[in-house]
Amino acid sequence: MQAYENNSRDLACMYKLLKRVDGGLEAMSQCVSSYLREQGKALVTESEDVDTKNPINYVQNLLDLKDRFDHFLHESFGDDMKFKQVISSDFEYFLNLNLKSPEYLSLFIDDKLKKGVKGLTEQEVELVLDKTMVLFRFLQEKDVFERYYKQHLAKRLLLNKSVSDDSEKNMISKLKTECGCQFTSKLEGMFKDMTVSNTTMEEFKNHIQAMGSNLSGVDLYVRVLTTGFWPTQASSPKCTIPTTPRQAFEIFKRFYLAKHSGRQLTLQPQLGSADLNATFFGSKKEDGATSTLNKTSSGPRKHIIQVSTYQMCILMLFNQRDKLSYEEIQTETDIGEKDLIRMLQSLALGKLTQRILVKEPKCKEIEPTHIFSVNDQFTSKLHRVKIQAVVAKGESDPERKETRCKVDEDRKHEIEAAIVRIMKARKRMQHNVLVTEVTQQLKSRFLPSPVIIKKRIEGLIEREYLARTPEDRKVYTYVA
Length: 480
Prior knowledge:
Number of strands: 10
Largest sheet: 4 strands, mixed
Structural class: alpha+beta
Distance between the termini: 65 Å
Radius of gyration: 28 Å
């Protein structure tokens, strides 16, 4: 902080001196700009440095840099508008050099809004979120940020990891103020779904009690998500749900569709979770059924194991078999290879206090012939044991590429919609003027390239929404 103060005083003296000279502040602002760009580029450029690969450190370093230059702006440059504009344009320049910036910013916010963030009060979290909104304003690809934010919010809501609903709604309110209600309508829809699901489950429980059923001991909780609001997959991922929970879900499905005819329910196993009653017998072993009821009795060690739906499907196989190979588990559960490996890693290779399974041979890699069995020596001080899934911070390159493709596809529709809106109002426009108007309309979400806009115009001409004028091919008319 001492260095900060000394630098501030020196810069303040220089500012006051150069203010008296013609062109002095212009030269000084250029020097500040080149230094800031150099510092910023060093922070965002991909390298082997851990900080550029860790989303939390990446964003925190940028926030620290912004704090530092805001300090200089206030203390040394007297909040001079010219210096303020220079700092803002420089941040916008280097933040958008790294295509991962929207994803990393969403991950940083996700980290702050999750339960269990140590050492931060709600007021401190609020302050950090206000600072991240400053970086958000500099993002050119706000639609990419929205896609990632939706994914991260969905996980927080469905896995009950939000620090509080108030903090979540506060963040959405900030985004709404910044980008308008269209940007946040789906995020607000997600919250509405959670509220409606709570009501639906109350009705379902009353229905079950009236039927005199206990769903074979399964305590079922279903969240019904509206397609379009949530980042769910159009086709449900493959997964063979064990008989008992599957039958319980089928009863709920019949109840729900009887109330809402014409709707479809598709199970999304990648988003679910389960509590398993597990009994560890020492030399003999066995995993319990999918009930969240805790039956206490003396003798063998009993725990409630909190797992994902995928992990539940794997563990319940060991009710019938003592040992299973990776290949057999894959055949029985039908879980995709990437997800299955992640689940087995968390069950057999995770923290020592969470290793429900043991693997032969004992190595980090998982091969088709490797054998898994229940860890009969499993012990924990906790009665309720949560198994942490192995999650990567950020997406892998193939996943990132897939997200990019989805964003590009969405952008095509948004560009075409903007062109049609403008042409419907104007009826006749010259090419360059139309490109400028489209860019102006869409810049709050992303910066469309003129080449892409030209392709979308040609697509609309082919589909006879627009037509070229005979006398000038660079002038378009709207075809009603």
